Amino acid sequence: MIALAGLDLTDRLVVCVGGGSVAERRIARLRAAGARVRVVAPEATDGLCALAASGDIEWLARPFEASDLDDAWFCHTATGSASVDALVVDAAEARRVWCVNAGHGGKGTARLAAETTSGDVMVGVVSTAGADPRRSVAVRDAIAQRLAEGALPLRRRRRTPVGGVALVGGGPGPIDLLTVRARALLAEADVVVHDRLGPTGILAELGDDVELIDVGKRPQHHPVPQHEINEIIVDRAAKGMRVVRLKGGDPFVYGRGGEEVIACRAAGIPVEVVPGISSAIAVPSAAGVPVTHRGVAGTLHVVNGQDAPTEATLAALRDDTATVVALMGVSALPRFVAAARAAGAPDTRPVAFVENGHTPAQRTIRTTLGTAIQDAETHRLANPAVLVFGEVARADLLLPVAALQGEGIG
């Protein structure tokens, strides 16, 4: 009968008999678990030799002797010889040391589980009906996939004195553009503080007992001031809850994530930042607009479209080899365009407006600096929209050269 147990191998001696590729892979896992590794083998792989040379493992370059197991807590044998492996297993059992027989799992006294980890949760799979590593790996991979999708409950059932905050970048909106880390943290969350934009569809997949707090910031309208958002996430975490601050795009690209990190650190709350795909890149790409392109644009400026353009922004708007991406800029578009033209940016500069990027309602308006305001009014451009200024916004940029020549372009 097999019992699955979690072993703390930190700074404990594990003896590995055999120096081949199987042993090297297993030793990597054992070292990751914090074990002190002693290898016993006449020969070893280049990787193991390098570890021995650097002092990361102990290597006894000779055949196995029973005394090699002295002071060992765990043993692994993978010599490629059934008789030697059996000898190691017998010697280990005589010393009451658990031993994995990689050549024949059923003839060892222990088995290494197929493992997967999500955050601070480790899942191990072993077969109770004889060693079957491929089956265990297949089950492990299926569980890992579900964990990555955030489909399994990972929330802690016991509160800690102090919880933690994760500032999670949700990307441009689609759930399948969330990172694996983001999905895992959402599955662990007790509280999710979210905005109007971003992957709000994921909220419906969370448990009924997860507290959802909509801070719904909109351009020129902030129903929950930033200082109150800071207070909310700190308050919940101080009560031992795991808090996810879910944002559209990336937390540090006009997401005010820096202020939230400062608030958490000032209160002694553990905080981590999980990057997301910024809408400054993701939304133009959804419309076929690369923000950089070899031979066309090698510099990218991302700006807050609500602010008056700085001298650096105006210089970029004049530069034929630069791209300027303005976020949250629809309401200030007339002022932005007027400043660009007054600073000498050409009226022929290509412009693309991408509205509701990565949604079924996405639409792209191609125009130029000289006609941008008129076209925005004609098409009733509205937020959320990303504004792209530069040669990369040309409609024909990504057409094949042959097609361009055939149409008489270029």
TrEMBL record:
Record-level GO BP terms: cobalamin biosynthetic process; methylation; siroheme biosynthetic process
Domain of life assignment: Bacteria
Gene Ontology terms for molecular function: NAD binding; precorrin-2 dehydrogenase activity; sirohydrochlorin ferrochelatase activity; uroporphyrin-III C-methyltransferase activity
SUPFAM superfamilies: NAD(P)-binding Rossmann-fold domains, Tetrapyrrole methylase
Catalytic machinery residues: D195 (proton acceptor), K217 (proton donor)
Keywords: Methyltransferase, Porphyrin biosynthesis, S-adenosyl-L-methionine, Transferase
Enzyme Commission number(s) from the entry: 2.1.1.107
Limits of the Tetrapyrrole methylase domain: 165-371
Protein name (database record): uroporphyrinogen-III C-methyltransferase
UniProt source species: Microbacterium enclense
